[in-house]
Amino acid sequence: MRAAVLHETGQDKLEVLDDVEAVGFGPGKVRIRVRATGLCHSDVSAMTGVLPQPAPFVPGHEGAGEIVEVGDGVAGLAPGDRVLLCWLPACGTCPSCRRGQPHLCLAGFMNAGTPNFARPGGDVFGFAGTGTFAEEVVVGAGCAVPIPDDVPFDIAALIGCGVTTGLGAAINTAQVQAGSSVAVIGCGGVGISAIQGARLQGAAEIVAVDPVASRREAALRFGATEAVAPDGLADAKQRVTAGEGFDYVFEVVGRSQTARTAYETTRRGGTLCVVGAGAMDDHLQLTMFELFFDEKRILPSLYGGGDVLRSYERAIALWRAGRIDLESLITHRVPLAGINDALAQMRSGEALRTCVEI
What we know:
The longest helix has 13 residues, at 308-320. The chain starts with a strand and ends with a strand. Helices cover 30% and strands 26% of the residues. Helix 5 (162-173) packs parallel to helix 6 (189-200). By secondary structure, it is of the alpha/beta class.
């Protein structure tokens, strides 16, 4: 079977091989024929080592496809079912799950340390326990979430990560209030989804911030009231909020430098929502005085900060009703053989989301 493999962390290109095998099938597992997968910035972060991931590995975690085979003990799933892949499945029994915070369950993260591919040279891991840049993948049954027949595979793939993350940051984590002012720093697929979430919540002003002109133009189409380059943020803060700062600021880059800018752009008593996945050694510096005196809420948002299964259902309902635009998030399409073209499109900022059709 074909799969795109990163041999060593730090390499900037993937090699599409035809001698990869999806392994680990057995009780409690399902085998999925991947039909579509999105390229998320987290995949690139894992390739560069910003996010920890054993190598060699198959990137990709934002996918959808059809179940090919079901292992013993799996209920509610059957061959032929259309599913999206959940890279952070909840176990249902750990303390986080019992507290009603299934998105903090560590069971899914544990999957990342078990190889689910193999080739003649040895074991190959799947990023985040999945690895959707492959024709097939074997995952735990909890990773396979059935989707309705009217949801295309490419739309389902986006809901599997970027859309859920961005919408959830605005709706679940920050709980943006109607009439508020919002700034979103970083307007790729996740940032655009946060913009759509803020619009749904009734934000009056939504300022999109991105260095790439095409992304700023896209942000306006998706609901931003204005869009500026990073060097225009200070002026936007002055004009929109009379210098006070925004009620909500979303950092969707994953760097301490932009998080610090986001903090300074948030009004006193406002909310900074950290959505970007950053490096373990990139430290955000704040003084104890400003933490006390400004009383700004700093809210990290992992995978949309809520029950992802309910978030999937919400995204599908909103898409069906025409309240969110998911089709336009896909700006480029490539076959698996063109995966390195997709990487170039993401690195340049040319693409909001590239759909890899497998």
